[in-house]
Amino acid sequence: MTDLVQQDVRTQETRAMSVTATKSRYQSAEFSDRLRRRYAAERRFRLAGMAAVGIASLMLVVLLGSIVGKGYTAFWQTQIRLEVTLDKTQVEEGNYMPVLRQALYAVVPEVTDRAGRRSLNELLSSGAPYQLEAMVKANPSIVGTKQTVWVLADDEVDQFMKGFIRRDVPESERRLNDIKIGALDKLAAAGAVKSAFNTTLFTAGDSREPEQAGIWGAIVGSFLTLVVTMLLSVPIGIAAAVYLEEFAPKNRWTDLIEVNINNLAAVPSIIFGLLGLAVFLGFFGMPRSAPLVGGLVMALMTLPVIIIASRVALKAVPPSIREAALGVGASPLQTVAHHVLPLAMPGILTGTIIGMARALGETAPLLMIGMVAFIVDIPHGLTDSATALPVQIYMWADSPERAFTERTSAAILVLLAFLILMNGLAVFLRKKFERRW
Amino acid sequence: MSVQTQFPTASAPLRSATGGPLLKMVARDVKVFYGAKQALKGIDLEIQENRVMALIGPSGCGKSTFLRCLNRMNDTIENCRVEGLIALDGEDVYGHAIDAVQLRARVGMVFQKPNPFPKSIYDNIAYGPRIHGIATHRDELDEIVQTSLERAGLWNEVKDRLREPGTGLSGGQQQRLCIARAIAVSPEVILMDEPCSALDPIATAHIEELIDELRENYTIVIVTHNMQQAARVSQKTAFFHLGEMVECDDTEEIFTNPRDERTQGYITGRYG
């Protein structure tokens, strides 16, 4: 027994010795050196990758940070409290501005000269009388009484209260003179100046006065445009993709069509705008600045994106599913409608939503068809004059007033929120309906 | 689609010259081309009713191509051209009398890889009867689903989870589900393209038993690479080689006393 064990130990030893004697090539110094270099290369690659991700994240943080930093103040707006006496004759004549001004003069009685009073007049927004008018219309019984009202301050007052106009700058270079600042200080001391949520931004159309300007008109314009785009491009795009992928013979013509679709997806969007200008406005005589035309142009632009995404999704459906359906006697159309299309739907939806998001953020083609216009009214139909959210941003970015700068950033934030929402929806749908086979 | 056919004769005999059982399907001089490449070089084959016909041969010999001609599944392949006559009950399947969709309802197919629809087990079976209008009422459909699953030997395993996805079953169960799906539309012929190649031996034995039982009601054509399987399940065997049908005879005859050298070489494992 012990002999056997000893023998076993000895054979193991000899085996081990023979291994060290004939060192395999994978144990040589050269090989371990090579292995070390391979690991070093891998580490370098990983570091480079992490650096790339880091730089990209940093850029994103800087971009978002600067937009949020510039834009968040736009969500608040300064208001001024006034004790107004609603004089019956003035109300009947519609002279609300003098009512407000009288109340303001009463706060700073020491300012009596014309120039000083003109300065005081400029503290209030030109939209303030409309607020008062709306109050009276809503409740006519307040005519002839004394009322406490909060009215919009002028955009420069707003900027001053937000600290963007500095006191230590000499008066001649300051946007607000000493009389205005004195009056504001007095109002503020009495608690008659407050910063409230800027509902105007979300309910009003465009305006020359920043404190009265809003993006609701642009949002409605964008919405109407997108509805037209979706109604046109989704059914046409999916039908084209299904035909090309499932039914069309593969020949030179379909190859040509495929190449053209791929090229169209890469055409600069302004070209589609020019096309819309020439065809829809020039030839068909459609109305200028209308969401209908905007939607048509966007549909042309989105179609190739949807067709390509849908074809990819259809291609990803395994052929065995088609064979299974054909094998039990389904017609080609039944095969596609009952089996292939439902399986491709998540991919198609994702592509569609991403195409829509692209259309939502598009400005250039809308410039060509006149959707870049100063439009105060909220559009009510497809042929009303309208603008779109990115175009609104473009126009505000062009405005000189400091208050429009922050509103530009705020509008960008709203647009980004919509885009994130749409992309999030795309991810959600893909995750929810994704199937494995 | 791009399938072009030539018909030497419009019909085929229902019985072979020597008598015997009914000929369910007859192939005469079937040639198949994929573009310029010829895959089948004139196949003559007679498939008897209620028998299992096994098609054997090395890979790429054209047996699957031939099988797919029998229910016109080759129609879906670009550039595929079929010449010659394939008849079902004496009627040319590429002729005007039979439509491809109608043909596939009469000649069902089970594929190499189990391919259940990503739907519930119930819907997998009910799909065929629904689109063909075989069952109009819920009760009829339930009955078809049950009998199909019973015949496929799957009922006891899945009767409590008919609403669960068919893709959640094991490989062998999925293949039996596919057989049940083929049976559900009451075909006359069932084509099986290497139905056990993706299955383990136990599942394979299951399917083989099933094929033997199904023979009573259906005519079965099975392509297989497994010669023991061909010997076990079939009554007739045809040996294909390089696009030709070398030899077709009773299975026993082929395996014990092959006439052709190539057949002998293949079944004794010298090549293939």
Automatic annotation (TrEMBL), chain A:
Protein name: Phosphate transport system permease protein PstA
Major localization class: membrane
Family the entry assigns: Belongs to the binding-protein-dependent transport system permease family. CysTW subfamily.
Location relative to the cell: Cell inner membrane; Cell membrane
Keyword Transmembrane carried by entry: yes
Stretches assigned to the ABC transmembrane type-1 domain: 219-426
Keywords: Cell membrane, Membrane, Transmembrane, Transmembrane helix, Transport
Stored SUPFAM superfamilies: MetI-like (SSF161098)
Gene3D superfamilies: MetI-like (1.10.3720.10)
Membrane topology (UniProt): Multi-pass membrane protein
NCBIfam families attached to this UniProt entry: 3a0107s02c
Parts of the chain that traverse the membrane: 45-68, 215-244, 264-286, 292-314, 364-382, 410-429
Cross-referenced InterPro entries: DUF3333, MetI-like, MetI-like_sf, Phosphate_PstA
UniProtKB/TrEMBL annotation, chain B:
SUPFAM superfamilies attached to this UniProt entry: P-loop containing nucleoside triphosphate hydrolases (SSF52540)
Highest taxon of the lineage: Bacteria
Stored InterPro entries: AAA+_ATPase, ABC_transporter-like_ATP-bd, ABC_transporter-like_CS, P-loop_NTPase, PstB-like
Pfam family, one: ABC_tran
UniProt keyword annotations, A-Z: ATP-binding, Nucleotide-binding, Phosphate transport, Transport
Location of the ABC transporter domain: 25-267
Single GO MF annotation: ATP binding
Protein name listed in UniProt: Phosphate transport system ATP-binding protein
Annotated organism of origin: Azospirillum rugosum
